[in-house]
Amino acid sequence: MADRAPRLGDVIDDYCPRCRLLLNHDVTSLFGDDVAKVTCRTCHNAHDYRHAQVPPKRKSKKGDKKTLMEQVLASMPKPPEPPPPPPAPARKKRDLWAEVERIKGQKKD
Ligand SMILES: [Zn+2]
What we know:
Blueprint: E1 11-16, E2 21-31, E3 34-40, E4 46-48, H1 61-75, H2 90-108
Antiparallel strand pairs: 1-2, 2-3, 3-4
The protein binds zinc ion.
Zinc ion (ZN) binds next to loops.
């Protein structure tokens, strides 16, 4: 009973991609007994009938968050590398030689 075939000029609810809202539309084109095209009564944008289906919102929030996190991590300065171990001090060697010389001198004495 309620399934009366739509006719041109009927006002039906549909999702307007321009207004991004479920709004009244005029039926402007039929395909058999189905509505093919509608015109938004608010912005007069003609588009395919979407059967009043609101498209799911893009689930990019999580991805954006991850991307944002990655961006933050990427923008953060890398932790400084540990300083390289100091080169073997030549002083020790010198001291060793000095010690040898000292011992030699002691032996001489
Ligand atoms: Zn519209």
